[in-house]
């Protein structure tokens, strides 16, 4: 989900000296294996030895007596985080779940629109195909949006990229909301694609913006705002899809029209907050603007240390040679880091959670749940996700990323296995469908406690910013 600059999306940096060692001597870093595990451990980062507390922890432990943390945030930081997440990651989560409730009405609309335009009813296989395209094209739009970040992010910056992105959200909402009135199901499909573009841009730029405006001591916590608002968005989509609200035949287009509200709120609110100070200093060379932005977000007047850190990073970047993605994959010095990210993000993408979100109603129907009860059972999945996300945010710094990742994926494998058995044997006993529901809830909770949070936070642990940015492009979950 806070980590790359747009100009480095298609390439990655290795130091010139490091490249010479790799090419001339076949150098393999002795601690490269340890670096990959250090990414997942709570007490180390890739730039320090195991067993030593990272600077962020020392920063947190220093301060007031009794171990209390000193104030490291400001109202501007909190408001910018909430406004940014509400108009970006919230919409991504909302669009994951909003298509579930009106499934039968959308399919009926496809049939009516097809018959009106072509003069004959559509067969059931074609309806299923159209519905599958409607659901899956959102992910395709996400890929396109992620690739677009490089084109627009360098010139617009973090904040203005998010503002421009609201144009995609608003246009998509209007297309989908008026598709029924226009009698054209194509508008709904195109709107879903554009909404996917919005999600891809949002999940690439928002975490980067939040990471760059927050102090080191709370950077991890602020970064988790993205995942928490995704959960809230999923729950909101399920809630508004209830028959008592907008999940009815006459009102289902309004479910998509609601998207305008968060986008508009971000559009009118975010301009009052500064641009990322790191972007201003590194890309625009505006030191005065960067200092002002740091003062606003950190809530203090003396920001010389933060400015000095960014300048030091800029000096380090001058000694970095840009290499292609292929050269990065071939470099022995970062091989274990790259393998760690590849394996983690492959598991993240292929774990099957998106299938549950997109086809929750169908899964519950296959589990034998009465159709009139499915919307309320589905609502419980969103509630479980929010609770699990909050729990993960409370324990991740104490337990570390590696235990949460391994435990989360392990529990998901266990409950997916049990779910397969219960779906196969659901006709043999009346209580088996309820066991299927418990398995689905357990799968969602396991994912939100471990992989969803810990997977996104892998990238800040990479040992150099340019490595981190390149890996984000290759394995971005958008």
Summarize the structure.
The protein is an all-alpha fold and 478 residues long.
Overview of this protein structure:
With 478 residues, the protein is mostly helical. 71% of the residues lie in helices and 2% in strands. It has helices at residues 16-25, 32-38, 55-61, 75-86, 89-97, 103-118, 124-177, 179-182, 185-213, 219-223, 225-240, 252-257, 260-269, 277-282, 287-298, 304-318, 325-330, 335-350, 353-358, 360-366, 374-399, 401-424, 432-449, 451-456, 465-475, and strands at residues 12-15, 320-323. The longest helix has 54 residues, at 124-177.
Radius of gyration, rounded?
23 Å
Helix-residue proportion: over 70%
Class by alpha and beta content: mainly alpha
What kind of sheet is the major sheet? 2 strands, antiparallel
Mean pLDDT: 75
Return the string of H and E elements: EHHHHHHHHHHHHHHHHEHHHHHHHHH
Which percent range describes the beta-strand content?
Answer: under 5%
If strands are numbered along the chain, what order do they take across the biggest sheet? 1-2
Task: Give the termini distance in whole angstroms.
Answer: 7 Å
Number of helices: 25
> Care to count the β-strands?
2
Overall shape: it is globular
Low-confidence stretches: 1-70, 460-469
């Amino acid at each position: 989900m806070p980590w790359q600059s747009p100009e480095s999306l298609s390439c990655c940096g290795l130091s010139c000296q490091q490249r010479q060692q790799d090419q001339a001597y076949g150098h393999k870093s002795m601690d490269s294996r340890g670096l990959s595990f250090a990414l997942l451990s709570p007490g180390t980062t890739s730039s320090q030895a195991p067993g030593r507390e990272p600077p962020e922890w020392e920063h947190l432990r220093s301060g007031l007596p009794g171990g209390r943390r000193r104030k490291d945030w400001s109202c501007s930081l909190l408001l910018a985080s909430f406004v940014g997440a509400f108009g970006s990651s919230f919409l991504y989560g909302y669009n994951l779940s909003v298509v579930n409730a009106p499934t039968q009405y959308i399919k009926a609309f496809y049939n009516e629109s097809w018959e009106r335009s072509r003069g004959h009813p559509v067969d059931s296989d074609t309806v299923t195909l159209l519905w599958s395209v409607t659901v899956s094209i959102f992910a395709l739009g996400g890929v396109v949006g992620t690739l677009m970040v490089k084109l627009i992010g360098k010139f617009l910056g973090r904040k203005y990229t998010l503002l421009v992105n609201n144009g995609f959200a608003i246009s998509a909402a209007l297309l989908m909301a008026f598709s029924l009135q226009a009698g054209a199901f194509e508008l709904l499909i195109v709107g879903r694609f554009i909404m996917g573009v919005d999600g891809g841009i949002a999940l690439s730029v928002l975490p980067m913006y939040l990471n760059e405006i927050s102090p080191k001591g709370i950077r991890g916590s602020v970064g988790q705002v993205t995942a928490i608002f995704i959960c809230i968005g999923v729950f909101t989509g399920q809630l508004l899809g209830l028959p008592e609200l907008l999940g009815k035949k006459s009102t289902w287009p309004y479910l998509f029209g609601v998207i305008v509200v968060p986008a508009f709120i971000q559009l009118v609110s975010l301009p009052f907050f500064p641009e990322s100070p790191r972007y201003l200093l590194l890309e625009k060379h505006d030191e005065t603007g960067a200092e002002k932005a740091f003062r606003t977000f950190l809530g203090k007047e003396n920001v010389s240390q933060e400015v000095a850190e960014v300048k030091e990073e800029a000096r380090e970047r001058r000694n970095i040679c840009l290499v292609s993605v292929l050269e990065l994959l071939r470099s022995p010095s970062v091989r274990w880091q790259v393998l760690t990210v590849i394996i983690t993000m492959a598991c993240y993408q292929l774990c099957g959670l998106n299938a549950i979100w997109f086809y929750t109603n169908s899964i519950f129907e296959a589990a034998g749940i009465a159709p009139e009860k499915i919307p309320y059972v589905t609502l419980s999945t969103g509630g479980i996700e929010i609770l699990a996300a909050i729990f993960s945010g409370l324990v991740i710094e104490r337990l570390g990323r590696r235990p949460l990742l391994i435990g989360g994926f392990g529990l998901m494998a266990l409950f997916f296995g049990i779910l397969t058995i219960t779906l196969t044997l659901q006709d043999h006993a009346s209580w088996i469908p309820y066991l299927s529901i418990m398995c689905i809830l357990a799968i969602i909770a396991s994912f939100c406690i471990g992989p969803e949070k810990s997977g996104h936070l892998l990238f800040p642990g990479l040992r150099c910013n340019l490595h981190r940015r390149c890996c984000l492009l290759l394995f971005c979950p958008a």
